[in-house]
Amino acid sequence: MSSQKSPxxxxxxxxxxxxxxxxxxxxVWFSSHATGRFDSQVFESIxxxxxxxxxxxxxDRQEVxxxxxxxxxxxxxxxxxxxxxxxRNNLGKACSDLNQFEWASLASWGxxxxxxxxxxxxxxxxxxxxVSRPFQYGSFVVGWLVLRVTSAVQVLGQGALLxxxxxxxxxxxxxxxxxxxxxxxxxxxxxxxxxxxxxxxRRPPSDxxxxxxxxxxxxAPELWACVRRLCARLQTSPxxxxxxxxxxxxxxxxxxxxxxxxxxxxxxxxxxxxxxxxLERSEAEAVLAHEMGHLLGGDTGHSKRLAPKLAHFGxxxxxxxxxxxxxxxxxxxxxxxxxxxxxxxxxxxASELAADRLAAGVTSGQDIARxxxxxxxxxxxxxxxxAKLFAEDAQHQTVAIADRVAHGFSAYAQSDTVxxxxxxxxxxxxxxxHPPLAARMENVGAHLNPEDMVQLLLNPVESTWAxxxxxxxxxxxxxxxxxxxxxxxxxxxxxxxxxxxxxxAERAHVEKHFPPLVFEGKDAGFDVQMDFSQVSYGEWxxxxxxxxxxxxxTADRLFKKYLDLEISGAGRFKNRRSICLSKLREPDALxxxxxxxxxxxxxxxxxxxxxxxx
Length: 614
Known about the structure:
Layout: H1 2-17, H2 22-52, H3 58-70, H4 73-78, H5 85-91, H6 94-128, H7 133-173, H8 179-201, E1 208-209, E2 213-214, H9 221-234, E3 241-245, E4 251-253, E5 257-259, E6 262-264, E7 268-272, H10 273-276, H11 281-296, H12 299-322, H13 327-362, H14 365-391, H15 401-413, H16 416-423, H17 437-443, H18 450-458, H19 472-498, H20 504-513, E8 517-519, E9 528-530, E10 534-537, E11 544-545, E12 549-557, E13 560-567, E14 576-580, H21 587-613
Parallel strand pairs: 1-5, 3-7
Antiparallel strand pairs: 2-3, 4-7, 5-6, 8-9, 9-10, 10-11, 12-13, 13-14
Helix pairs in contact: 1-13, 2-3, 2-6, 2-7, 6-7, 6-13, 7-8, 7-12, 7-13, 8-12, 9-11, 11-13, 11-14, 12-13, 13-14, 14-15, 19-20
């Protein structure tokens, strides 16, 4: 397994992380190159002066040249030797440039050293996370505290180095500099530093929203009694809340959970009514015991402590990615997160197997195995039904996901597809990565051959815990109604992105989501009109189709802001069109709409190309 994953980890994380060292390495090379070039120019000047001096003998001339070869101008400028004072004075202000090259070199070496130290810290913290759960939490906290400081220093240092290079690269190689380029680099560097500092201190929202209804003990006394009985046998405290929903999973958490307008604290157990109807009571009890095993094993408490820090780290990564010039630091921090995720996956899989063994001890291994097969098959089939529905290019009169799953499950259970799905099936879960089905059954000493699995899925359920929940049918109906309505809305919007359109009905559907728009100019003749297929501007001779736009960028010229469009297929002098945003009443609204309409067109083209290839 490690031999298969190592190349992927190397390509995905390690190689991109090396970009952290790219700019400092270039800074070291450039400083050395500039210093060497300066020394060469000074030596050539001295050599020409000596060559023109006819009073100097050949032996003296050679002696002088040997001295200047042995003591280049950079050595004289950077030395405090009083014997070289006259040499330094003759060089004049040129020594100040050499001092800059020296400081840039030292800064670049410092950034490289900081990068190496950060790498060692990341490796040590990442490896410590494999030792144990307490080490995992502590190593991540230490790594996060140290690396966010070193990454901020990297952003500040590399930003300053980039601004310095934006002057000296052109000054050295083109013998001129560009104030606008320097200004742009300074703005980018300042913005990057601001984003990083803000991201360090800003904590993202950690709300965990669950679409479900709370099942109080009065609404399901038998189910609550069952859960308490299982907790007593496992010697752990029972949950404070039980939620019932239609998601294809069960889970337990100690996070704060938002259900509608309420926020629940403490231990919360989520049960799926859809799955409870598929499970015999003993099978459902095995699942519930597994979830209570997570409480006993401290998995939920560990997750509660670690999850906010992971969320903060994820927000920090997003800010680094959005910062543009902070991408090298982003890739480095992503490598650390990737290494930590390996330890998380390992410990989570171990926790799942441990919870299975605990559940098997109070129920049975066969009940665990049967519940895993049923839950895995149901989740896989439901995913297939929803994916097929969403992929259809026609509008649905009704999606009826629940009915499609219920009526099609028997046929699915008898197909070859179910075996392929179950071979790699894992139970869906919002917090943990689960081991494969075969490994989990082996872990509890149970075995089901393919024929047994099919028969298990086809056998009618005699008694379920869903029947003990008051108004279970009404709860399911409400939740499925809300879920299917959102699904239909998402599919409806997706069709607006897929259609070319090629019929009047498709055109009407696209225009429902992408209607014709008009953006008024501050003066007459500068209006912009846009629909799903084209954009026109008062100063243009004809509209431009989105199909013709190769690229779109914004630029500032003569104190005005423009939207520049590169047109494909146009002549040499007609390959660009521009909209003066400064002449519009709502330039930001135009940019947002233009990006959305252009994205729709490009997504439509990709969809058509994929459909034709299929």
